[in-house]
Amino acid sequence: MNYKIQDIEKSFDGKIVENLGNNDYIIKINDNEHNLKIITMNSNGIEFVLDNKYHKAKYIEQSTNEMNIVIDNVPITLNLHTHFDEVVYKNSGGGGTGDAQLALKSQIPGKVVSISISEGDSIKKGDIVCTLESMKMQVAIKSHKDGVVKTIKVKEAATVAKGDVVAEIE
Amino acid sequence: MNYKIQDIEKSFDGKIVENLGNNDYIIKINDNEHNLKIITMNSNGIEFVLDNKYHKAKYIEQSTNEMNIVIDNVPITLNLHTHFDEVVYKNSGGGGTGDAQLALKSQIPGKVVSISISEGDSIKKGDIVCTLESMKMQVAIKSHKDGVVKTIKVKEAATVAKGDVVAEIE
Amino acid sequence: MIEKVLIANRGEIALRVIRTCKALGIKTVAVYSDEDYNSMHVKQATEAYHIGEAAPAKSYLNQDKILEVMLKSGTDAVHPGYGFLSENDDFANLCEKNKIIFIGPTAESMNLCGDKMKCKAAMLKAEVPTVPGSPGLVKDAGDAEKIANEIGYPVMLKSVYGGGGRGIRIVTNDKELRDGFESVTGESIAAVGKSAILVEKYLEKTRHIEYQFARDTHGNTVHIFERECSIQRRNQKLIEQTPSPIVDEETRARVGKSVCRAADAVGYTNLGTAEFLRADNGDFYFIEINARLQVEHPITEFVSGLDLVKLQLDIANGEPIPFKQSDLKMNGYAIECRINAEDTFLDFAPSTGPVPDVIIPAGPGVRCDTYLYPGCTVSPFYDSLMAKLVTWGQTFEESRTRMLAALNDFYIQGVETSIPLYKTILNSDEYKNGDLSTDFLKRYGMIDRLTKDLKKEKEEKSEAALAAAIIHSEYFKNRIQNSTVNNSNWKYKLD
Amino acid sequence: MIEKVLIANRGEIALRVIRTCKALGIKTVAVYSDEDYNSMHVKQATEAYHIGEAAPAKSYLNQDKILEVMLKSGTDAVHPGYGFLSENDDFANLCEKNKIIFIGPTAESMNLCGDKMKCKAAMLKAEVPTVPGSPGLVKDAGDAEKIANEIGYPVMLKSVYGGGGRGIRIVTNDKELRDGFESVTGESIAAVGKSAILVEKYLEKTRHIEYQFARDTHGNTVHIFERECSIQRRNQKLIEQTPSPIVDEETRARVGKSVCRAADAVGYTNLGTAEFLRADNGDFYFIEINARLQVEHPITEFVSGLDLVKLQLDIANGEPIPFKQSDLKMNGYAIECRINAEDTFLDFAPSTGPVPDVIIPAGPGVRCDTYLYPGCTVSPFYDSLMAKLVTWGQTFEESRTRMLAALNDFYIQGVETSIPLYKTILNSDEYKNGDLSTDFLKRYGMIDRLTKDLKKEKEEKSEAALAAAIIHSEYFKNRIQNSTVNNSNWKYKLD
């Protein structure tokens, strides 16, 4: 499979060369072979020794072509080039980011203190959509693009989780 | 239900008086009512607040009329007087302890270093049956009664877990 | 003698107080909100009482409910921790009335500390230097100019009705002052319909240096050295250390004496902290007294050998402080990093939620005060301080490198933390050289450096990340061949 | 300069060494057996290499394999920890030959320390008092009687072929000696076909007191105070403390000087410990030198402020010890409890298995060195030391009460531990009064007292236990009504 790591200007080819049994594997990244021993593994994460170095990874989220993991406390996003479409459900919400994206998501969890817009309003990128309170702080959620407010998905005093859609902007 | 606690010269009556919902209960021990709030619970253990004191219990083993728990790090054996026979499997091995008991169990885990008896031998209470090694120490497993060795259940160099039957003495 | 203490707080500080009480054989009473029924302070206290809903106003700030628990549980003293009711003189009063010892200053002294104008007046009388400026409001531009020339430019014109940077002007000469006076007055009238202006010396590149002090009911006062807390974000301390790299023996003793005068001046009892701004020219200016145990008290404990909570209890029991100023010797160097649940790159926005796994660092010279345990939750209802990581060393370098090693060991799954930022800061030459100031993060572009450090870290971890991804894909493929997959959340179906 | 250290050990001591290396920026190489692939030292080291099967002979004692890893990984020094290869002069030799720094004394000095007869002779020459007795074997009963009269009765007759209490006789006068000599000779010949007898002064109510010392390659020697380790079971230390309650300044300095002579006499380099018996009359007798870092080194770290592993690395790098004897000041009091996986009531038999949950105590003055984490396993292949709980206080009482609180907080699910015994000991008047001796447990019937304490604890917990049982029964009843029960292991079917 072919991988790219976000923020890093390289792409990688990676595959398992051999399963040696007893949780030992030989894997190949680009042209180099590596020894890998799985210590523990489940669907949430893996602990392994790669070429005599211990690593601990947590699998956060996977979509058709993107995978978020935290390895040794370092969050890394991998882009995958593969064909899992038939089985993998794309669970990252809308389609892509940027101007095309309808959904405005909250990057923090919190309680809605106030909502600054109404459905049908024309708004600019950076306009405050609503204000959340969390840990005694007030944080403004701002529009990610110019557009018209299609729907507001939250109510005052409601609790919002990280990643929840706050509003849809067309 | 009626309970007795090993090593304590009292017997207790205990029951749930009311389930108040939200994990709150009123229970009655002898003549006194107590408030109990379950914090977490599964089949292995429970954390709860009893009359405003926090406790953590682990359920170790239960048979028809005996229950072993560790509460706040204190191991306690309760004798139950109830009629669960139809559903509860008595998983404590043989029947009772003392002279009637056939099975000699190891109280420690370890590796069998040597076996000192043969099947058919007549032995006395306290005679060494086998020697285990664990954590660099050698520990002798001694017969719990006078009798004849019916079967030896372990082999040299085998690993024995705590509670495993080492031999049967008739 | 205090025999049972209610801790009107939660989180790491509740645990900190419980710990000393346990060692002294004093019973503890925890209180908890709906959000905290599974929190560590509930589990560690002798008794625990539910006091209400998650919102602080309905639980940890609910004085009536807390009083009810104190009376019901037979508590003879209350420790307020920091935050919540710790500097609330009404609560101190309520305790006094109900004959429950409030572990802290009297309501009267607390009130005096909390009133900035009255407190400043008391300091002037006690010859404790405050930031030079007008003693109160200035009458007009002429008055302001007179004062500006006395204290020297640059000065700051401040409308008392301003706030958040509005109604403030820094001026460097008489002309700018006269123009500035007019516009600040105008802004203030436009905004709130009235104007009232203060003049204060404007200080650049200041350090935040504070002194721990203690004063008993017999009038004995000691200071327990300084702490430098210059590394801040949004006026909140991130990293504290003691000794300060720019405080020598002579300065320590000199400023320390003024701290004792300050404590005497407000009739303080129990432990408190006098906060100072330290100007780049070396002058110290008193800002305020924090009338409670501070978050950063462990660094003082490390270098003094004292248990400050025990000292609080002794003083609350009416005992004299069991040592003299001359008995106190500073031993080694200590650093504290406040491990916050926050996202450095989202302007330090809160990060909350379940924490399935934690590894807490330990070892020689390492102390970690925390409420975290595997399976706990970081609540959005309370502040973001999850842990205080504190290290000690015989030298500053030893305490710094121990901190770095401990930061590397600290594993908190599930929430964003300030740990990566602290690694960048502790590795910087500016930090190593003690070149600290309250604008340290901005002055030295620490967030940008962190971005670079994280990119480097990503590069270092890229092979391991790929390995994890490769194994995951393989595992996934094998599993889906053997089971029915519910596509909507396959992730949870694998095990 | 050492840049990469292999730790030829496992468990808490491997972690301890890794910690200091991390703080100093030194890379670490862990080695692990089949049993340890999921152990914390594998996770914390920079690199980790598998070296063989669980049995120590096939892994941690496998010199060839460890050498192979050292060469492959580019290690320039090896830290042996304690146990395993730490006092193996062949291994020290092997390292020397392969130009890998062995962090400890030279093979030659180690050999001298390990040979009791040669070491005793070196001590006599250096005027370090050893237990009075015959310099070697005695010729006959007459010779024995002569020596007995020189050193004074009671004396002990010891067959060098005895062991485990056999072939030993305590005699109090000439007549008993002559009778005893005959029977010991007879017993020894009967048992092993030959006899060889030593005479040694018999000491009652002895204390085990040892001195930490350091000696660099330039010949500088310092002692770093004493540790009292009298509380033992089967000659294994359970609780250690410093300072010893019966060592005053004058004694500390006097015996300390003899410790430095002892280190010089055997040409020691690096850190070592000189063990003494302290007779009830106050005399100190040298027993042996432990040529390695000791389990109980953290209490010395607490009162000296030193990082002893760092000191080991400095000395191994050929640096002079960076302080003088006169620079060392003892600060406060420290206690260590060895948290063993053992069942006090089964004569301290091992207790092993999975540890699903652990709560490790922390707080001011508390340090816990441990390999435990939730989900780890206590292996039957290695020794029973799971954790070292160490507390410090300004006073002995503070360190003692902190230890009691920390012992109460320590939660280890799944195995039996020595924690309850330590609570009984630390609460006893004899311990509080410092009335210690190597037979402390028997002398004061501590196991019986523990039984009583546990019974009391059971009584206190009986209502809570009942509550847990009642809820369990209810829960169980509800569940079995709703599901098919596999009677054979219903316990695991409930969730």
Description:
The complex is a heterotetramer, with 2 copies of chain A (170 residues) and 2 copies of chain C (495 residues). Helices cover 0% and strands 58% of the residues of chain A. The two termini of chain A are 36 Å apart. By secondary structure, chain A is an all-beta fold. Chain A contains no helices and 16 strands. Chain A has 2 domains: 2-80, no CATH class; 84-169, Beta Barrel (OB fold (Dihydrolipoamide Acetyltransferase, E2P)), CATH 2.40.50. Chain C has helices spanning 11-23, 40-44, 63-73, 89-97, 107-114, 116-125, 141-151, 174-192, 249-265, 297-304, 308-316, 396-409, 419-427, 429-432, 440-443, 446-482, and strands at residues 4-7, 27-33, 47-52, 77-79, 101-102, 155-163, 166-171, 197-201, 207-215, 221-233, 236-242, 270-278, 284-290, 333-340, 342-343, 349-350, 353-355, 358-359, 366-370, 376-378, 385-393, 411-412. Chain C has an 8-stranded antiparallel sheet with strand order 13-12-9-10-11-14-21-19, with helices on both faces. Chain C has a 5-stranded parallel sheet with strand order 3-2-1-4-5. Chain C has a 3-stranded antiparallel sheet with strand order 7-6-8. In chain C, helix 1 (11-23) links the parallel strand 1 and strand 2 (27-33). In chain C, helix 4 runs antiparallel to helix 5 (107-114) and helix 7 (141-151) crosses helix 8 (174-192). Chains in contact: A-C, A-D, B-C, B-D, C-D. The interface between B and D is large, with 58 and 49 residues.
Radius of gyration of chain A: 21 Å
Q: Write down the CATH topology of the largest domain in chain A.
A: OB fold (Dihydrolipoamide Acetyltransferase, E2P)
The number of helical runs of chain A is 0
Order of strands in the sheet with most strands of chain A: 1-2-3-4-5-6-7-8
C-alpha end-to-end distance of chain C: 56 Å
Low-confidence stretches of chain C: 480-495
Can you give keywords for this protein?
heterotetramer, A: 170 residues, mainly beta, OB fold (Dihydrolipoamide Acetyltransferase, E2P), 2 domains, eight-stranded antiparallel β-barrel, four-stranded antiparallel beta sheet, C: 495 residues, alpha+beta, eight-stranded antiparallel beta sheet, five-stranded parallel beta sheet, 16 helices, globular
